[in-house]
Specification:
By secondary structure, the chain is of the alpha/beta class. The protein has helices spanning about 30-35, 50-60, 75-85, 105-115, 130-135, 180-190, 195-200, 205-210, 230-249, and strands spanning about 1-10, 40-50, 65, 90-95, 120-125, 140-145, 150-155, 170-180, 215.
Length: about 250
Amino acid sequence: MAVLVIPARYGSRRLPGKPLLAETGKPLILHVLERARAASSVTRVIVATDDVRIRAAVESAGAEVFMTSPDHRCGTERVAEVARALPDEEQFVNLQGDEPETDPTDVDILVRTLAQDEVSIATLAAPIRSEEELDDPTVVKVVVSAGGDALYFSRAPIPFSRDGDRHTPLLRHLGIYGFRRDALLTYARLPASGLERTEKLEQLRALEAGMRIRVATVAQAPPGIDTMETYRAFVRRHAARSGEHERQG
């Protein structure tokens, strides 16, 4: 069982105020909370933020908020601050605050993967199903070893196929991590790495430091929210699901 932490910040270069977008009738961060709470492997869900507007939205829904430093370089550092305040907890899940359609059973798969004896960091991946996905820099790709550990993450299409033949699955990374306590706190103490700064991918800090990340594969990746276009697509899907529930009711 794990504590799930959702790091959320108001500032975003591509979509400022993203956690509080509310065209569905409630803020985006509350959709993420609902999905997190539905996971059977999670004992507690906490939103970690440095913004009082996000805190107010989460508290108005009766959910737990932890106010963190505004100086963190990435979401995992925000999660680590929460972990330091919870010394009796051993396992933590970092679910990004722009994943409102995360499958709760995927969270459970992540926690089961983290429970394996040799695993201190875990994450998820799903098959890439189109050339468009492969070429999209907002879709993070991961290459995995025969033993199931991440070899590299990139926004570029990897692995590159020199002759056009592909002999290994093409996988996209999902925005969720599981950490054992010691690995999480170790990660937060590391300086930002060159690869991390180059690709703008926080998980590369761990790989560059020699930390292993176990990758579990799930059926499909939920569509994250990166732009107003992807947010409005989510709003349309949410409206369609709500209309279907009303018709069935």
